[in-house]
Amino acid sequence: MLPIRRALISVYDKAGLDKLASALKAAGIIAVSTGGTARALKEFGVSVEDVSSITGFPEVLDGRVKTLHPNIFAGILARGDRADDLKVLAEHGINRFELIVVNLYPFGSVISKDDCTADDAIELIDIGGPSLVRAAAKNHAFTAVVTGPDQYDEAIAAMIRGGTTLAERQLFAASAFERTAEYDAVIARWMAGHAGLVAGGAKPTSKESQSEEPPLPARFALGLERRMSLRYGENPHQSAAMYAPADTHFGLAGLKQLSGKELSYNNLLDLDAAVRIADLIQDPGAAVIKHTNPCGAASAATIDEALGAAMAADSISAFGSIVAVNRLFDEAAAECLLKPGMFIEVIAAPAFSRGAVTVLTTRPAWKTSVRLVEVPPGDPWGPTAGLELRSVAGGMLAQRPDETPDDPTAWEVVTSKAPARNLTQPLDFAFTMVRRLTSNAIAVCQGTSLVGAGVGQTSRVDAVRIALEKAGDRAEGGVLASDAFFPFPDSIELIKQAGIAAIIQPGGSKRDPEVIAAANEANLPMIFTSRRHFRH
C-alpha cells in the first residue's frame, strides 16, 4: 500500500468534486491544480498549489499549455524503487505525485451538437489531460490515476485507509487506458470525416455513382462502451450485451425505452431490421418484423393506415412481432394493434404521443410486456467511419450500408411492354422492400403494401413460390421485386400464373435474354435496375 501525499487534480466534469475535496482535506493531501478546477477546489475549502508555481511558467496559448512540463511529468513518472530516479527528482527539486485525478474535455458530446464547427471541435481535443492520464497509468506501480467521478468512492476509501493498493492501481490504470483509447478513437473518427475520408449523405445512387465513394480506410479506431446488459444472447446459455461507440446516440445506440420488459438480444436484432426498413420508406410507413424479415410493410397517407395495412399483410406472422414506424406513433396507430388475440413484442418510433402510451400501457392484455422504444433519427454510421460492421470468427467485415435510395431514372424497361403508369409507385416500393429481405429474396406488393415475401431461400424459384403463396389472391394485379437477377426463366411462368402485373429486378445474368424472352411471351412488363440488393 502506498500513501497519498500529493495529488494533481484537473477535471472538466466537476460532478462529485465536493466529496473528493472533503476527503483531500481530511487526509491532509496536498492538492495541485490549475484553472477552473483550482477555483472549484478553493471554493470547497481546499488549499491548492497552482501548477504554474511548480513549472515556473504561466498558462499560455489560451490554456493549451498548462501541465506539459518536466516538473510535472517527472513527478508522475518517477519510479519509487529506483535510486537514480529519486536522485534526479532531488537534484531538480521535483516532488512526486501519488494520485492523478483527471477527466477529459467532452469531445464526443460537443461534436454531436448540430451547431458544432470544426474550430469548436479542434479546441476540445485535449492534449495535456490524456498525457497526464497515460503517464500515471504507465507508472501505476507508484501512482494511482482516477479518470471519472464514478471512481471517486474508491479513491476516497483509499484516502481514508491511508493509501492505494497495487491491485487498485492496476485496475485504475486499465480503466485509464480504456478511456484514453476511447477518447482517441472518437477524435480519429471525427478527423477522418473532417479530412473527407468518410462517405456521407444519403443521395440516390446508381451503379455509376458507387465509384465516387472514398476508399475504405486502411484502419479505424473503434472504442466501444457497454450500453445495455442483456439477460442472454440468442439462447439462454449465451451471455450478451449491447455495445456502442461512445460518441454515437443515433440508431439503437440512442434508444429510449418508455415502458415494458427489458429488451433481449433477439429483440434488438429485430428492432434494427424494423427501424431500418421503416426509415427507407419516404411517406408515412410501418414495418412488421419477424426474425429480422418483414412479414408486412406499407406506406400510406397516415401512420395508422400504413400500420393497418402492414399488420394485415400476414396477420398470423404478426403475432409476437416487432413493429416500427417512421413518424410519431399516435393514438390512432395504437388502436390498430388492439385486435383480439394480437400480441406485440416491441413498438419503435421516433416519438410516441401521450395518448398512444396511455392506450398501450393500460388496455391490451400484454400492456406490461410490450416495450415502447423511441429511436432518435440521425445518421448512426458516423462513429464507424461510415461503415456497417459484422463480426466473423477472428475478424470484422465492413461495408458501406445499403441505405441510400435507388435512382429510378437509371432503370430500364427491357420488355416490349412497359409497366402501366399506375404501377410506378408500387414498383419503387417493392424494390425498396426487397432490399431488406434476406437473400434469396422476393417481394410481392399490392400498391404500397408488402403482401408476400420469400426470404432466405437457396433457389430463387423457391423464393418466388413462397412469396406468391403468402400473397395468395392479393398477387393479382400486384408487382414483384427480386433482390438479384433471375438465373433461369423458370420463375416467369409462376409469376404469370399468379396474375402479377409487372416485375422489377436488377438483371445481370448471362441468361437475361432468355428471361426477357419468357417475360415477353407472358406479356409481362419487366424493369432492370442494374443494382443488386443482396442481404445475407
Task: Please describe what this structure looks like.
- With 536 residues, this protein is α/β, with parallel strands linked by helices.
- The protein folds into 3 domains: 6-193, 3-Layer(aba) Sandwich (Rossmann fold); 259-374, Cytidine Deaminase, domain 2; 408-528, AICAR transformylase, duplication domain (Cytidine Deaminase, domain 2).
- 35% of the residues lie in helices and 18% in strands.
- It is built from 18 helices and 21 strands.
- The model is unreliable at 200-206 (pLDDT under 50).
Write the layout of secondary structure elements.
Layout: E1 6-11, H1 17-27, E2 30-33, H2 35-43, E3 48-50, H3 51-55, H4 70-77, H5 83-92, E4 99-103, H6 107-111, H7 118-123, H8 128-138, E5 144-146, H9 152-161, H10 166-194, E6 224-230, E7 240-245, E8 256-259, H11 265-280, E9 285-290, E10 293-299, H12 303-313, E11 321-325, H13 331-335, E12 344-349, H14 354-362, E13 371-374, E14 388-392, E15 395-399, E16 412-413, H15 424-434, E17 442-445, E18 449-454, H16 460-471, E19 479-482, H17 490-497, E20 502-505, H18 512-521, E21 526-528
Parallel strand pairs: 1-2, 1-4, 2-3, 4-5, 11-12, 12-13, 19-20, 20-21
Antiparallel strand pairs: 6-7, 8-13, 9-10, 9-11, 10-18, 14-15, 16-21, 17-18, 17-19
Helix pairs in contact: 1-9, 8-10, 16-17
Question: How many strand elements?
Answer: 21
Q: Taking all residues together, what is the mean pLDDT?
A: 88
- Helical content band: 25-40%
Global geometry: elongated
- What would you call the quaternary organization? single chain
Q: Main sheet, how many strands, which sense, barrel?
A: 12 strands, mixed
How many separate domains? 3
CATH architecture of the largest domain: 3-Layer(aba) Sandwich
CATH class bucket of the largest domain: Alpha Beta
Cα separation of the termini: 55 Å
CATH topology of the largest domain: Rossmann fold
Strand order of the largest sheet: 8-13-12-11-9-10-18-17-19-20-21-16
In angstroms, what is the radius of gyration? 30 Å
Strand content: 15-25%
Strand-pairing-aware structural class: alpha/beta
**Unreliable parts:** 200-206
Fourth-level CATH superfamily of the largest domain: Methylglyoxal synthase-like domain
Q: Helical element count? A: 18
